[in-house]
Amino acid sequence: MNKFISGIVTFSLKNRFFIFFMTILIIVTGIWSYIKTPLEAFPDVTNTQIIIVTQWNGRSAEEVERFVTVPIEVAMNSVQKKSTLRSISMFGLSVTKIIFDDDVEDFFARQQVNNLLRNVKLPQTWSRTYNRPTVPRARSSAILFREKINLRSICSPNKPG
User: Fold this and answer.
1) Which whole-number Å values give the CA distances from 36 to 28, 29, 45, in the listed order?
2) Long-range pairs for 34-39 at CB < 8 Å and ≥24 separation?
3) Rounded to two decimals, what is the model's pTM?
4) Picking from 38-42, 59-63, 67-71, 157-161, which range would have the lowest pLDDT averaged per residue?
5) 130-to-30, 127, 137, 150, 155 alpha-carbon distances in Å
6) Tens of pLDDT, residues 34-66
7) In this structure, what are the phi and psi dihedrals at residue 15, rounded to the nearest 5 degrees?
8) Whether 116 contacts 131, CB under 8 Å
9) Cβ–Cβ under 8 Å, residues 72 and 96
10) CB 145 within 8 A of CB 117
């Protein structure tokens, strides 16, 4: 070990200009790296999530599950690069959450879900509302799609069904 250290010291003393140049190069590289490193107070470590909220007022949880949640789940099973699909049905409300892999971009996830939601067969009359994230780069969770199924127009005898 002493021979190794004495070899380094000897090389350093014989090649002073090389050691000086390498020291300056390492200092400049360190300063440049420090300046170029992005600094975030709260870095986003969550993966991309899309939440589909569907309201069907006045219906039991079983009806919401059968006629709204299950068709949405079946359609969302073919989404690419998803890691989990979770849903919950309550009185008049269905919430479906799709969690994607870490490397999935927001735009890709939204596009996938939008394309598959067009083919979902829901009760006769419903209105679709799209919610944009409030922050342009809001990755933690984006409520993309809200549906409100209008009970009056379904039960109205004047409208053809």
Assistant:
1) 12, 11, 20
2) none
3) 0.58
4) 157-161
5) 46, 10, 17, 17, 25
6) 999 887 777 667 788 888 888 888 888 898 899
7) -120, 65
8) no
9) yes
10) yes
